[in-house]
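Re: that chain you flagged

S.,

Sorry for the slow reply, it's been a week of failed gels. I finally had a moment to sit down with the sequence you sent. For the record, here it is as I used it:
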Amino acid sequence: MKLSEQKKALACAVKAARAVGKLMRQNLRLSKKVNLATAHDIKLELDVRSQKLIEKMLFASFPKVAVLGEEGVSGNQEAEQRWVVDPIDGTVNFTYEIPHACVSIALQVKDAKTGEYQTVVGVVYDPFCDELWTAIRGQPARLNGTIIRVSQRKSLGEAIVSIGFAKSSSNLERTLPYFNKLVRKVRKVRLMGAAALALTYVASGRFDAYVEQGIHLWDIAAGGLIVECAGGEFWHEPIPGDYAYRIVASNGLLRKKLQSF
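Prediction finished late last night. Pasting the structure tokens below so you have them in one place:
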């Protein structure tokens, strides 16, 4: 995919992210229609509406590119290119009127030899702080147009590490003992509730790492690229489940230490 096409895709994704961000700002303090509520998650009507808006805007410029989203799929899922979309990452925060949620849009291209997809464009937009992270593979990551870099902290004792708790019982059983060890080794642990923002905070040097035992592709595709383009490391390993992974995103200096206990 040519750089000119990637830049066009980036501009399209930014426009779509900002459009949904506007919806999020307008609806933060309003009552919300809940489509599904479970013990650990909430799905809103606005999630679906937001993804449909994103799809409409993306298809207008890229009609042959498929969409893989948290709220469903559109187009040919075997296509050479696909958008990976989380229309509202941090839905529980958003539902509870906590202004820490974002829009995440990535573009992936299939490798002709391996058949695996690689993220080439990433956009994460926090409408409440008006912070826009962008990246094109091979180029610097940016926050509101300014180049960003990961931190240079090497010691866990100086690090702030974000951690996410997956919803399944098996993942909780793995994560809770790890958390109990982690909290004793690092300066601070943060549980923020929006994976894409945790990744962009690593890319920006605000966090030194982000760890989660079970997370979906649409939560991490854009943010993972942004971390890499900011000079960090985005380690991810598939686990059982639809597009599910365990991840360690870091400044590139801490992963082995974080995986040693």
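What I noticed first: The mean pLDDT is 94.

Talk soon,
D.
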